[in-house]
Design brief:
flat; mainly alpha
Length: 206
């Protein structure tokens, strides 16, 4: 259990090529661990938005909604996984959907490790020290993208160039899915309002 939740994720973020290879071919990665990491990311970002020091936190606590924040993290996560699976299926990728979920989840580990400590530290920072806060946040983001790149490349057995193209196409497909989803929801809303209006007309005339 300790191997699954602590030792292997820490090994992977330091040795990503070996780690993702072991995840794919030696069965060391677990979907449940990836989902736990995702949950920890949600908690870390909610804590950051609500409790970071006032010098670096521009959020109005009156308008913060934990459910909305959860959806803005979880939805893009699974949208990325679905879009990447769709693209790589057409581009001869070797990764299965669960491997994409695991690779994406494990890539989030740096955010879990860095966000909470820097959020706590930000409450004691003076203005001259806020640059360190933004530096740590930037490092966690760059580290995440680098791990996601290595994970995608290893899971699908792509070259570096093909991995970059795949990731760009994945983002494009995510945008298309969101656009089509918004369009369908808008159409459904218009159909619903049309039916309601017809029903009201019938009721008022009878």
């Amino acid at each position: 259990m300790k191997q699954d939740f602590i030792k292997f994720p820490l090994h992977l973020i330091v040795h990503p090529f070996d780690g993702f290879w072991d995840m794919k071919y030696d069965g060391k990665g677990k979907v449940r661990v990836a989902l736990v990491i995702l949950a920890l990311v949600v908690i870390s970002i909610i804590l950051q938005n609500q409790f970071a020091g006032f010098l670096v936190n521009y959020n109005d606590p009156r308008y913060l909604n934990s459910i909305t924040q959860l959806l803005t993290i979880v939805f893009p996560f699974f949208l990325w996984c679905v879009s990447n699976w769709a693209i790589t299926t057409l581009m001869d990728g070797e990764g299965k959907f669960k491997e994409i979920v695991m690779a994406t989840g494990y890539a989030l580990v740096p955010i879990v490790l860095l966000y909470v400590p820097i959020t706590v530290a930000s409450r004691f920072m003076v203005e001259e020290e806020t640059a360190f806060y933004y530096l740590v946040i930037s490092i966690s983001s760059i580290w995440f993208v680098a791990l996601l790149f290595v994970g995608t490349m290893t899971v699908h057995q792509y070259t570096a160039f093909k991995t970059i193209m795949t990731m760009i196409l994945t983002v494009i497909v995510m945008g298309i899915i969101v656009f089509l989803g918004t369009l369908v929801m808008s159409m459904m809303q218009q159909i619903y309002e049309f039916i309601v209006n017809i029903y009201r007309e019938i009721i008022f005339r009878t």
